[in-house]
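Friendly challenge for the regulars: who can give me the structure tokens for this chain first? No prize, just bragging rights.
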Amino acid sequence: MKKKVLLLHGWGGSDTPHWQSYIAAEIARDYGCVSFLKLPDFESPDKDIWIKETLRELREFRANVVVCHSLANTLWFHMCNSGLLEDVENLFLVAPPSLNSKIDELKNFFPVEVPKDLHAKKALLVCSDDDPYMSMKEARELQSKLGIEIKVLEKAGHINADSGFGEWEWMLKKIKSL
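First reply, four minutes later:
Bragging rights claimed.
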């Protein structure tokens, strides 16, 4: 089966120099199949529009690897809870925010229930021990509820360009090794 990677960004997007842009470019450079969906109005996102756009992309692109960053994790959880998702082979949940975030611009995304089914055959939660949007206690609780493996990065902030994650070789190798 050919690997088809869908990258889903969070609040504010993930344009260069963010690691998701790097991953998209590197996969495409090797003639890989990648979709780096630009969700609409990412500074003031609407959950229902993001769900509609993402479900359409999943249907048309037929991704078997999905990489969520930040708010895209919350988006994925909502889609899991809706019962509208088909299973993917691999899912990466990178730097999810607190499930009860109080950020005003994101209020229609929260709260969110932890899904009983992630609609992924394999899933990995990647968190930082000093993420300003989710404490390690919350990350460990989320991992326990999801029943998946966790990788904890030290002093990685929100695992974005602001915390030094532009060229993220570890993630690129992880995706390529699937």
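Residues 32 and 48 are 30 Å apart (CA to CA). Strands lie at 4-8, 33-37, 65-69, 88-94, 120-128, 149-153. Your move, everyone else.
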